[in-house]
Amino acid sequence: MPATAQGDLGFDVNVTLSKKAAAKLATEKEEIVVLASYYGDPKRSAEKHANEVGQIDLTPQDEEVEIAGTAGHAHIGGTKVDTKRLDWLAGPPEVNVNVASARKSSPDNLLSCDFIDGPLSDVQRKPVTLHCGLIEENVDTKLRP
Question: Taking the domains of the chain in order of start, what are their residue ranges?
Fold first, then answer.
C-alpha cells in the first residue's frame, strides 16, 4: 500500500530569506506563512469532479503554517486533504506550495519566493528549501525541488 493511502501526506519545507527581507520582516514584526494545496489528475470515471483546470482538488482550502519572520522550518501535515478524493486520482497526488508574508503588518505580501509544484513523493524525500526576497528585490524565483 503506498504511503499516501496510509495517510502520510506530510512533508517539510525550510524557508530562507535574503538579508533585505530578513531586515524588513524584523522591522515590521512580520511573520511568514507557508501555503500548501494538493491536487492530481482525475481517473476517467472521476472527471465530473475535476475543477476548472481539469484537476481534482484534494484540499477544500489551503493548509497554512505560520513560522517566525526570521525564516526556518515548516511541517506541512496534509491535514486539509480530503482523503476520499484520493480514489479519484489517475496517479499519485501532487502538491503546490507558496510562501508569503503573513500580512500582520500590512495587507500586502512583502515576499517573492521559490515555490513547489509537482509530485508529493518528490517533496517527501527530504526537506525542500525555498528562498525568499522582498518583491522589490526582483529575485529570480525557482520551481523546487
Answer: 3-144
Grid cell at residue 66 = 505560520
Q: b/e string for 112-125 if b means 16 or more Cβ within 10 A?
A: bbbbbeeebebbbe
Distances (CA, A) of 134 to 18, 33, 87, 139, 141: 8, 14, 40, 8, 11
C-alpha cell read off for 90: 489517475
Cell reading at 28:
515590521
State which amino acid sits at residue 96: N
Instruction: Fill in the amino acid letter for 63.
Output: E
Q: Which residue has the cell 475543477?
A: 51
What is the grid cell recorded at 2? 503506498
* Cell (9 digits) for 117: 509544484
Instruction: Kindly report whether the global pTM for this prediction surpasses the value 0.70.
Output: yes
Place of cell 480514489: 87
Q: What is the pLDDT of residues 71-113, one digit of tens each?
A: 999 999 999 999 999 999 999 999 999 999 999 999 999 999 9
* Residue 87 Ramachandran class (φ > 0 left, ψ -120 to 50 alpha, else beta): alpha
